[in-house]
Write a structure and sequence with these properties.
Elements: H1 3-21, E1 32-35, E2 54-61, H2 63-66, H3 82-85, E3 88-105, E4 112-126, E5 133-149, E6 152-165, H4 167-173, E7 181-194, E8 197-209, H5 215-219, E9 226-239, E10 244-255, E11 263-273, E12 278-289, E13 299-310
Antiparallel strand pairs: 1-3, 2-3, 2-13, 3-4, 4-5, 5-6, 6-7, 7-8, 8-9, 9-10, 10-11, 11-12, 12-13
Length: about 300
Amino acid sequence: MSIAHRTRELCCGFSALLLFVLAPHVHAQNGIDRFLPHVRYFALPIADPLEPRLGLGLLNTTLFRTAAEGRERIRPFFIPDPADSRNDVDAVTSIGGTLPLWHVSSNGQGNGVVIAAQGGVISRFRIEYPTREDVGQDWFVGMPIEFADGAWSGRFRIMHRSSHLGDELVETTGAARIEVGGEFLDFLAAYTLRPETRVYGGGTWVFRSYTDKTPVMIARNRDDRFALQAGAETGAYPWADGHFGVVAAADVHLAQRTDWDPSIAAAAGFSARTNTRAGRFLVRYFTGPSLLEQFFLTPEKYWSIELIFDF
C-alpha cells in the first residue's frame, strides 16, 4: 500500500476518535471529568523505540549485514556494496503523539482515568547514499486508556499497526514488500518505586495478524498472537526547579513470532519536562530481532543519538 493510503488510515482513525469528544458532556456527581485535558497518567516508556513520538535521530545499524538473506521473505535480495552496508548510518524520524480526550477523576488529586487518541509513523532513511533510500515506515493508530491509583499506573490500548517498505530500497535491492502488522490489544502496568523511578510490564494480544499469514511464518508453523514487554527507568531533575535533569531506562520486547527471542533497548540522556510534556536528548543501544516490521526476523544491533518529544 502507498504512503498516501497509510496517511488516510491515520487521518480516518483520528477523525473517528475526535467525533467521540464532540458528544454531550455530563459531569459526574462526585467526580471531575473534562474534555481535551492537560492530564497524562502513564508516561511513554523512555527506552521503547516503538512509542509514537515526535523525534529525529541518527543510528549506526548492522541491519543490512543479514537482511538480504530474506528471512521474512520467500527469496533473498541483493544489497549493493555489501561491505559498506555492514555498518549503515540511517536517519530515523518519528511523527506522532498522544492526544488526551477525556479525563475522569474521582478526587482530583492525581488518581483517575484518561481516554486518549494516539498515532504516528516511524521511518528510516539510508542517508549515506545519494538516493537517501527510504528503508520503510511503521504506522500506528489507536486509542489508549491510561489510569493511575497511588503508586500504580497503567495503559490499555487498542491499536492498528501496518508497515511499508521504502520504494527506493525496493528499486535498488529487489526486496519484496511483505504484508505485516495487524490489530492488537496491549496492557502495561507500572509501579513507582520512588519519584522518577518505576518498573513496568505487560503483554499484547494480536487479535488480527497479517504477519502470521506470510509464507515464511506458515512454513515455520509459527503464530503471531502474543508478545510481552517489560522495563525500568529512573531519573533525577535537580535543575531548573525540577524541570531539567537526566534519565536512564531499559526495555525488553519478546514476541511469539520471533520464538520469544528478546529485543533489548537501553537509553540514557538529558530530559526537560513540564507537567504533561517532555523533550529528551538520548543515546540508545538496541540488540535483538529488529523492531522495524519489514525485517522482523532479521537480527539487528544499533547505537543512536536521538532528540525526541513526548506530548
